[in-house]
Amino acid sequence: MSSQKPTTVPVSQLSEADDDLVYSALAVADRRFVLAMLADREGPVHLSSVADALAARKHDGTGSAESTVRSTTTALYHVHAPKLDDAGLARFDREAEEVELAVDAERVRDIVDLPSID
User: Which is deepest, 8, 12, 45, 57, by most CB within 10 Å?
Assistant: First the structure.
């Protein structure tokens, strides 16, 4: 991520034109989990950390845990992180493979019933 710390904006400042992107981003449980994880941390989080946590939550004992992490990492990089970025909810740095919350964490918690990440 850049050396200059970007500021977060309240969700209420997202324009109505962004509503569809926000609702689409929040429609998937994996993306809500990512937001919950980001809301509990300060600054950028490497996708591998997010993938490990999400894969551990999703792994049901079938197949290998490694394949679950691999497929989760791929989905995060190509689908979930870009979708959250497009909606203005997170900032995704493809080169650094890092994602961070782009809106006020408390406001996100007020609007969305975020899943527990424990």
Answer: 45
